[in-house]
Automatic annotation (TrEMBL):
Coiled coil: none annotated. InterPro entries: P-loop_NTPase. It comes from the Bacteria. This is Protein ImuA. Gene3D superfamilies: P-loop containing nucleotide triphosphate hydrolases (3.40.50.300). It comes from Methyloceanibacter stevinii. Residues 198-217 have a biased composition (Polar residues). Residues 245-266 have a biased composition (Low complexity). Residues 188-266 are annotated as: Disordered.
Length: 266
């Protein structure tokens, strides 16, 4: 089991603002592999600002990315402090298999509390922070993520967007990322990123990682934003917190996909 599966805080920072979706895709790829290790929920906390800027999670999209949306709990808060509080309380419950937060960690005390809660619960926790924000102290690892051309699919001569490919040809291959491991408690030991292939890198080195194919044969492409859900079936807002079940629209969407596109004749 790789370093990214270890209990504690793992910071994921985009190389630039435009690489933020790539950082999220990398985190979700790792969490998808963690979900396969056993039961438990994933707690995903985000602020309203991040939800408005990058979109809210979309159940069928998470499923295609290899995650089980029914096991993803989404909390949207007004402020960064509320998001950090919700994440800490979730970690303390010991009911989570992984935690994920899209929020700013404003104080070192907040980071220490999250780290202690994650280690005490034996749960890996991923913090997706802004490219220009201060680095979080006390993390097990810190990864700098940049976009990379998608991988080649065998027997598809137009797949991917690498050398020799033409726009509009073939099918985009598995997602790839350019990884730079800036911090690792393991020191010079290599850190392996579980679900991503080729992500072994010593601290300070840069490598290229490729997402493994999910069970449904599809992968999450970096750079693609999530669709925004118009509403939710969860409990009403209370004290600025809103819990949105990612699987709330899963049944309806699955039925629509099974029926296929409607035509004028139908």
């Amino acid at each position: 089991m790789g370093t990214l599966h270890q209990a504690g805080l793992h910071e994921i920072k985009p190389h630039a603002y435009r690489d933020t979706p790539a950082g999220l895709g990398f985190a979700l790829s790792v969490i998808a592999d963690i979900q396969k290790q056993g039961p438990g929920a994933v707690l995903w906390c985000m602020t309203q600002r991040h939800a408005q800027e990058w979109g809210r999670p979309y159940g069928p999209g998470l499923f295609k990315a290899g995650l089980d949306p029914a096991r993803v709990l989404i909390v949207e808060t007004r402020t960064a402090d509320e998001a950090a509080w919700a994440l800490e309380e979730g970690l303390k419950s010991s009911a989570l298999i992984a935690g994920l937060a899209q929020t700013e960690i404003k104080t070192q005390l907040t980071a220490r509390r999250l780290g202690l809660a994650a280690r005490a619960a034996g749960t890996p926790c991923f913090l997706l922070t802004g490219h220009g924000e201060a680095k979080i102290p006390g993390t097990l690892t810190r990864w700098r993520i940049a976009t990379e051309a998608s991988a080649h699919i065998p027997f598809d001569t137009g797949a991917g967007f690498g050398e020799g490919a033409h726009f509009g040809e073939g099918t985009p291959g598995p997602a790839c990322w350019r990884l730079s491991l800036e911090r690792s408690r393991a020191g010079a030991d290599s850190a392996q990123a579980g679900h991503v292939q080729g992500a072994q890198s010593a601290a300070g080195q840069t490598s290229r990682a490729q997402a493994a194919q999910s069970a449904v044969g599809q992968t999450l492409r970096e750079g693609a934003r999530f669709h925004v859900q118009a509403g939710h079936d969860g409990p009403p807002e209370k004290d600025g917190l809103r819990v949105v079940p990612a699987s709330s629209d899963r049944a309806a969407d699955a039925g629509a996909l099974a029926r296929g596109p409607r035509t004028a004749a139908s």
